[in-house]
Write a structure and sequence with these properties.
Number of strands: 33
Shape: globular
Distance between the termini: 51 Å
Structural class: alpha+beta
Strand content: 25-35%
């Protein structure tokens, strides 16, 4: 985040030996002094006598406030850079608590301090904070406005009584408006609040049928709507742009088609070969000509890129360079000097699409050591399912490699295929790492998602099984050496696949898995959202009830069959009940053939592993050791 005219840089860093990061800021004009300082953590350059860095929030101290755990969900600096609003997870009460800190004094403000906060947005140039509160079922439903420094009670702006309707807020990039999204499975609406006068009411600017993604921005007197709402009653597989004058007098408001891509004279980045995702950064600074985004690849550490919209220049500003200075230790080949020179490129390119293929030498990728391949696998109904594999050049042998197949396929979410350093241990032991982009997930439009949910959820499982069989039949992975990996709803996918074809897998890792959808959807002990029922089905509908039963891992454990070894990791502080994992483990142990070489292991913790870098490392090491042991036994 950058501020004009006194440009400030905001960032987080982890101090040596500490578990959680520190939020800091410094002036951009002191950037060189900060980089050259021998002890920048001290925040003071003794040579120049200048204070370089200001510590804003130490999350290690926040952990002491919240029972030894620091998990931040939201964090917003006010437009005037005087306050920080943030929410921290209170695991004793299972909600997020809002706090506001004065960045000049470092003290906590007396108000607002609210519980169950799911959303927030600054208004009135930092003098007012709007925030959303959830009900006991974690449904965002009420909007409050708090005047910073005032002793008055926070004003209630909206109270949505309908249990099936949800509320979300955000400020536009220029801080002129706060947008309010009110939505359910049957409709989507967007309202505007004037940020200069947040108590003046809300104005409806957009509504449509069905659940749609709607983002409204403001620029030079026009509203811009980025949405995937249905057009003429037909689903669309893409987002599109609409615009409307801010002072439109028509009712309902008229929206016109936005710019075509060709009209914008687009430039094309010279991307590396195997890009899996490009993610926009926060880009808080509305006036900046620089856009920040992250480029991810299965064979390249994430690269954070700054792109100057005014001149087309771009620069990699942050990337873990696994090769530089450690190449000889890790691999025994390649010149670290030549690699070091690659990371300092500052490239200017034309608007021609000829540079689309790019120059791979600009990126610190690992393609010299690891290969990445893409396949289209035919599923049970002839639909092509994308399959991505990575493996070590040095250790790849036909029909001799163990493999690990990842899957998710839910909520229209992208399957994460970014480089993960913890997988290096498996790759260097000859493992093939595979990713199945099954139906139900994201990346191929809304229809791809809809064809893998509710009564069509079995398509997700069949897609995953087709990819597993493809790996074995094409001798990419050795028979009896394939393992599955799934997180959350991906755990349901892998467990269901094991129920269908236990002989395909030698082992599996299920992380906080969703294993008992029938009982969870029928009798939700933990709060569920509309998205959960839209994804897995409404058990009150007889057809959907039978579909849920058919795919439920707990309901379909086979009798007197040899199952693969399974490691389930779960926590008492998780969205899915820990009893689901315990019930499934007990049923598998009871019904299937016992084999001491194929244990069914349940690893439970009272800690929250997410955002805890030490626990994450420990859990990753456990998973890797389990997989290696099972393949060698």
């Amino acid at each position: 985040m950058v501020d004009f005219p006194r440009r400030r840089l905001y960032y987080r860093r982890v101090e040596e030996g500490m578990q959680y990061p520190v939020l800091c800021r410094r002036l951009l004009s002191l950037n060189e002094e900060f980089i050259s300082s021998k002890s920048p953590a001290g925040g003071f350059d003794f040579t120049s006598g200048k204070r370089i860095e200001q510590k804003l929030l130490d999350y290690n101290q926040e952990a002491e406030r919240f029972g030894g755990y620091a998990y931040e969900e939201l964090s917003e600096v006010s437009p005037d850079h005087r306050f920080l609003a943030y929410t921290m997870y209170d695991k004793d009460n299972d909600w997020f608590k809002l706090s506001v800190r004065n960045l000049n004094s470092g003290a906590l403000c007396s108000k607002p301090q609210a519980d169950r906060v799911s959303n927030l947005a600054w208004a009135k140039d930092g003098q007012a904070l709007l925030y959303v509160v959830t009900d006991q079922y974690k449904r965002p439903c009420r909007i409050y406005c708090s005047m910073i420094g005032s002793t008055d009670d926070d004003a209630l702006l909206l109270d949505e009584p309908n249990d099936n309707v949800f509320v979300n807020i955000r400020h536009t990039k220029d801080f002129h408006f706060v947008t309010v999204n009110v939505f359910s499975t049957t409709f989507s609406k967007v309202f505007l609040i004037n940020a200069a006068d947040p108590l003046s009411g809300m104005t409806l600017v957009w509504e449509c049928e069905g659940l749609a993604h709607c983002v409204v921005e403001h620029h030079q007197g026009y509203l811009y709507l980025f949405t995937d709402a249905a057009r003429d009653g037909q689903l669309v597989d893409h987002h599109y742009l609409l615009c409307s004058p801010i002072h439109s007098s028509s009712s309902p408001r008229k929206w016109e088609k936005g710019f075509n891509l060709e009209e914008l004279n687009p430039r094309f980045l010279p991307l590396p070969k195997y890009v899996s995702q490009i993610s926009a950064g926060p880009n808080y600074d509305y006036k900046s000509s620089t856009m920040r985004f992250t480029v991810s690849s299965p064979v390249m550490p994430d690269a954070v890129v700054d792109y100057d919209l005014s001149n087309g220049k771009w620069n990699i500003i942050q990337q873990q360079n696994m090769l530089y200075e450690r190449t000889r230790i890790l691999y025994g080949t390649a010149s670290s000097t030549s690699v070091a020179n690659k990371s300092s490129n500052n490239v200017n390119f034309r608007s021609s699409s000829e540079v689309r293929s790019g120059n791979d030498n600009l990126w610190n990728d690992l393609t010299e050591f690891y290969a990445c391949e893409h396949y289209d696998v035919s599923s049970h109904d002839g639909v092509s399912v994308p399959l991505t594999i990575i493996y070590s050049h040095k250790h790849k042998c036909a029909n001799q490699n163990p493999g690990l197949l990842h899957g998710h396929g839910a909520y229209g979410e992208l399957l994460e295929k970014r480089w993960r350093s913890e997988l290096k241990s498996l790759l260097d032991r000859g493992w093939v790492i595979a990713y199945a982009d099954v139906r139900g997930g994201g990346g191929q439009g809304k229809k791809w998602h809809h064809n893998g949910r509710r009564t069509k959820k079995l398509n997700t499982i069949q897609d995953y099984l087709s990819c597993a069989k493809f790996l074995i039949e094409n001798e990419i992975v050795q028979d009896k050496k394939l393992a599955g990996w799934g997180y959350s709803a991906g755990g349901l996918l892998v467990a269901s696949a094991i129920n269908c074809c236990p002989y395909l897998f030698r082992a599996a890792v299920l992380k906080v898995p969703f294993l008992d959808p029938t009982n969870t959807l029928l009798y939700p002990v933990l709060p569920l959202t509309a998205a959960d029922f839209e994804e897995f089905g409404y058990p009150g509908d007889i057809d959907e009830f039978h579909a849920i039963r058919e795919l439920s891992p707990y309901e379909n454990v086979q009798k007197d069959v040899l199952y693969p070894a399974v490691l389930i990791t779960s926590s008492f502080n998780t969205r899915f009940g820990v009893w689901e994992a315990a019930k499934w483990v007990a049923r598998v142990r009871e019904r299937t053939i016992h084999d001491p070489n194929r244990p069914i292991l349940l690893n439970l913790t009272t800690d929250i592993v997410e955002e805890n870098r030490y626990l994450l490392c420990k859990e990753s090491a456990l998973e890797t050791a389990f997989l290696i042991k099972m393949m060698e036994s």
